[in-house]
Amino acid sequence: MDIKSIVKRTGQTLSSYLTYEAMRAVVDQLRETDPPRAHWLASFSSSGNLQDGEAYLQELLRANRDLAFRIMTVRQHLAEEVLDFLPERVGAAIAEANLKLRCAHLEQAVGWGEDRGRDFKERDAQA
Amino acid sequence: MDIKSIVKRTGQTLSSYLTYEAMRAVVDQLRETDPPRAHWLASFSSSGNLQDGEAYLQELLRANRDLAFRIMTVRQHLAEEVLDFLPERVGAAIAEANLKLRCAHLEQAVGWGEDRGRDFKERDAQA
Prior knowledge:
Shape of chain A: elongated
Number of strands of chain A: 0
Largest sheet of chain A: none
Oligomer: homodimer
CATH topology of chain A: Non-ribosomal Peptide Synthetase Peptidyl Carrier Protein, Chain A
Largest interface: A-B, 51 and 51 residues
Helix content of chain A: over 70%
């Protein structure tokens, strides 16, 4: 496994995702203050080019400079607010999700799961 | 902006992305040792259900328990190796990308960019 490349790709994915969240936040703000621009930005952003946040912003800069600058400001703000929480949170979430998946699968394998309630009732009835 | 919800969604995106990277790593390993299983796993994983890493693993657990457990182990390893680097890296990358986008746009706005070379030549010719 090439960890260095994975760090790089994960970083790009995260950066593009924050650009997407910034776009959503700006659309939400505009819905209050300027619905036609909110509609325009939502349409512009639904063409799927948000897979690559940088390419999206380059295109938006040509189409509407003010909105592009606004999204750039918001994504930097989001980066400051959000990033520090992620390592611990995601690390713990993955460990917990793995544990849950293992347990659920073990329960199915030994025939528990949906039948557990019935089993307990049967045991209670026998007692 | 609801920062708490954004942290949550970003965390889920990141967790699903690491599940995707773990699947890729396992496919690469299997290509060396067991090409038919590599092919099977790649086909199983290309159906687009990797948008949600947990749903993907639940499905894979039913279809092939060993591969699901292997991917779960690899994604936990990746989380340990990768996550700590991300906040600083992505924060700096966004700040730098914003600066570059602003500069490139400014250059275009004042008529530099592609014409810059020609301008210098004209100036040199006039001098």
